[in-house]
Predict the structure of Amidase.
Amino acid sequence: MEWSFKTAGELLSAMRAGAVTSAELTDEAIARIERDDPSINAICVPDFDRARAAARRADEARARGADRPLLGVPVTVKESYDMAGLPTTWGMPPHRDHVPAGDAVQVTRLKAAGAVVLGKTNVPLGLQDIQTFNEIYGTTENPWAHGRTPGGSSGGSAAALAAGFGALSIASDIAGSLRTPAHFCGVHAHKPTLGLAAGRGMVPPADPAWPVEPDLAVVGPMARSARDLTLLLDVMAGPDPLTYGVAHRLQLPPARRERLGDFRVLVVEEHPLIPTSSAVRAGVHRVATALADGGARVARHSPLLPDLTEAATLYMQLLISGSVARFPIDSDEQLRTQAAELSAEDRSLDAVRLRALQFSHRDWLAADHGRERHRQGWRRLFTEFDAVVCPITPTPAFPHDHTPNPMERRIDIDGASHPYFDQLVWAGLATMPGLPSTAIPAGRSPEGLPVGVQLIGPMYEDRTPLRLAELLEQEIGGFQAPGGAMTTSFALSAGPASSGSACAATGS
């Protein structure tokens, strides 16, 4: 039997029953990576020797009667997490030789749970793109269609899961970086409530690994099933032991509903600032139909939904001002001049982004106050609804676009061109107020590309959208490997990635 596309839960059951060992699972995963990853380039930093040693230790522990939440399960880790002895570069050439001495807190938790880490997955430069490519590691291909992006910034993790390279991955999200790759690659992901999972050690290579939680950013799980998301979130969740963990212990409330027919769901498919493609609308409709057929109360409109235009504006202000504070840009004076030349009536998202590059602390505080108003609006909405279903991006995976200035890139939506970064408005809907959001597969486009939707839930009630995701997976299906069953080899539409394989790029 081949195990590469089994869920983590299935692998754990098989190991507990003695049907397979962690060493066998790890060897199979490594063989698949060595065979198939040269054309995908998802695993940018392999760690096979240590993985095999960890698998042997897992089997020995199980033979002694031990059992842990992920004991013996092969997994991957996003390149941006510190792992002792492996490079953490964030795809930034000046830091290609940066090797941290210790593990990120989430890597520590993975290992403590018994997971076997196969290696690290590729990212875009500075984690600041909706695609995955950089000068150090090259370009990651979407396993469903070479020539298209797997998304970003966790594109390597999503591509690895879709290709059968490990059962789970840990990644991060500030602009849809968990949800967009899941949507583009047909897998599952969960953006936790802001602050729910400690992020220490998931920092740019120039920064110390202090217990600091950046605004908007979260770390979270990716998987091939909804139930596996819950399994991994239970390992990841909890405060940093150096800060809140000194005095606080996490106890997530149970899901609000257990049966599909008991859920109250608001479905939103159109945004006032950017259209939704027909393929993504079809995915939203498929989920809405499954909800209605299952007896859930489904609404298409509600006056309680916070204003989407204002939400997008606040999100861009907080995102861009925070980003430029962490990664200063060289052309500050030129941008200041361009912002001054904007018409006062220009409220486009391009104008919002340009002005946010020059935000003062007072400007940021005003945006933060707006965020608190929206949080209160979401609290009111979630007295009437349990979850909101909406797109993750307006389109399925799009062709690679490596135009050097991302502000000059465009996104095609059913034949019409739109600003590249405008597609972030759907991701920002949950990110700006810090809400949990679960990305699930929702079918495929007419071209055969995966389409996903997100399920947004109440703050700190992460188990509610996760439970809804499990129930919908039972109704509409979940992960389907590219090329069908994928039991022997890939049925991919193009040759190797033009930027070279991960091993070639790293010299490993």
User: Anything to note?
Assistant: The CA atoms of residues 220 and 304 lie 28 Å apart. Residues 8-274+390-506 form a domain with the Amidase signature (AS) enzymes fold (CATH 3.90.1300.10).
